[in-house]
Amino acid sequence: MERKRWYKDMVFYQIWPRSFKDGDGDGMGDLWGVLEKLDYIKSLGCDGIWFSPIYPSPGADCGYDIADYMDIAPEFGGMEAFRKVLDGVHARGMKLLMDLVVNHTSDEHEWFQKSRQRIDPYTDYYIWRPAKPNGKLPNNWDSNFEGKAWTWDEVRGEYYLHLFAVKQPDLNMDNPLVREEVKKILRFWLDMGVDGFREDVITYISKAEGLPNDRIFPIYKGMRKYNHGPHIHEYLAEFKRDVLDHYDCFTLAEAPLVWPKRALKYIDEKDGQIDMMIQFQCQTADCLFTDYLPTKFHLRKMKKAFSDWQYKLDGRAWNMLYLENHDHPRIISRYGSEQYREESGKSLAVSYLFQQGTPFLYQGQEIGMINWRPESADMYEDVQTRYNYEHSNLKKSPEVRLRKMWRSSRDSARTPVQWDDSENAGFTTGKPWFHVNENYREINVAAQERDPDSLLNFYRSAIALRKSLDVVRHGSYREHFHSSKKLYVYSRSTDRQKLLVICSFTDRETKMKVPSGFDLANAKLILQNCKDADSSTLKPYETRVYLWE
Ligand code: GLC
Asked: What is the pTM of this model?
């Protein structure tokens, strides 16, 4: 049966629930708050929502450490609120994606509690190893968050593997019983009516046989032995065959260190096991592999990442397009300019919204929220940030180390959404669980609702345009002036329509460049962020979209 692939026509909005909107006044965002804002999300032109985890969790990694896969955390409103949200989403013709986190659980999950006591059938649900005779750890892998990937468990008298925080033990996916559990989880939510899953670090679930040492790698030693491991395609195909193929749903896989060629093995529409992939290349134009190794922003790196994926997936697979999510600092602070916040926010929006694929927006991106910069490091909540602060650049002064966190931390993008200029930015009537960025009086939704030229309204126009143009869905992509360090220019073409997108990424005026074969005299200027577009000069961060039809 031909898959419907309705996700290709959609735009998604990612909710990181703790900081989205508090509906019950306890200071933490929840599903009651989401319910209040469904019309707002729809008004952006978004027709789908991805929820970062909302399951019961001790919160060691803000919900990515799950203690029960088949429930909704009481602090988010429990099942009662969830069913209301799900109905509300569907009543608006929208779709809902859950986060599926099955590389690991919380150490407080019942499975882990039983596994550490060797209670069957849970004994081999996790990856346990005895200490080596010489007292060394079972192998040399590093965790992604907190030092070594092994922690000793007194109860069981063995080490367990955790590729993330100490409180996130890795599941043993080679155990068929664990794969059955994953299928149960998938069916549970699909039967309830959810429309798909974003699959957390899913490319890590199959570890190399024997868990061999890894050679030195600049970051995350071990990654080559567990990312895209030996049985990954087999396990994903099993989930698809046994569950996903029986529902009208779609899957989106998070995949660290993946390039288009490898991605096609997962997402090729002919024989892939999943539908779209969250790649990280578009996030490394100002760092080396990770935000924790920051560099200057290189526009050419950003363009190359965008174009590589556009060219190489063309006709074979579908791109997931994004600039922000809960794992990276805010994009204006990184690739744009806080001084030209509105202008660069608009140029960034255009840079990705007219590519081929399904765009995702992260809460607050649509109003141009910028990085949060705490006064002291102990204000950070995130486990990865705290570990990095405590263990890197120790010879540098506390100020320098703190500044580095401002640029690198995920918490820079996890402060509450700024709804209005009232106390706590209208996020909560209680005491917010996390700090509100002090700039909320200037940057907030209410103010931008009132301003027709705001970034918020620009996003609305850009999304509406994208949806109205056949060329955005079907057109071929071409990048122009790829060696330019100031401009990102691309076109999209079908037989009937042609689109030219021009984005300036400099805070100076710069010369307008038009690729040959594009005659502006016959084009319609359908979107712009500067009034009085000049034929020869672009203002700082100016962006324009031209259409021929
Ligand atoms: C993914 C999530 C991130 C989480 C990690 C461990 O990268 O996006 O937020 O901390 O996996 O689950």
From this structure: 0.98
